[in-house]
Specification:
Distance between the termini: 25 Å
Low-confidence stretches: none
Order of helices and strands: EHHEEH
Number of helices: 3
Oligomer: single chain
Helix content: 40-55%
Largest sheet: 3 strands, antiparallel
Shape: globular
Number of strands: 3
Strand content: 15-25%
Structural class: alpha+beta
């Protein structure tokens, strides 16, 4: 786990979609709805890996 924010790894929307086995559009919807925090870089988004872990942990407890 990163010691601070500057050491965390950013991933693309396509990488997140592939990891979660969903479409790119689903990831964009999660970003637009505020469920997943992302940083805009030019015309694309980057998402911290830790943010994906946080989102999934939240979904897991809701589903359980």
């Amino acid at each position: 786990m990163p010691k601070n924010e500057s050491e965390s790894r950013f991933v693309t929307v396509a990488e997140v979609a592939d990891q979660l086995r969903v479409s790119n559009m689903t990831v964009y919807r999660l970003i637009q709805s505020g469920q997943v925090a992302a940083v805009r870089v030019g015309r694309s988004y980057r998402i911290r890996e830790a943010e994906i872990d946080r989102y999934l942990a939240g979904q897991y407890t809701q589903a359980g």
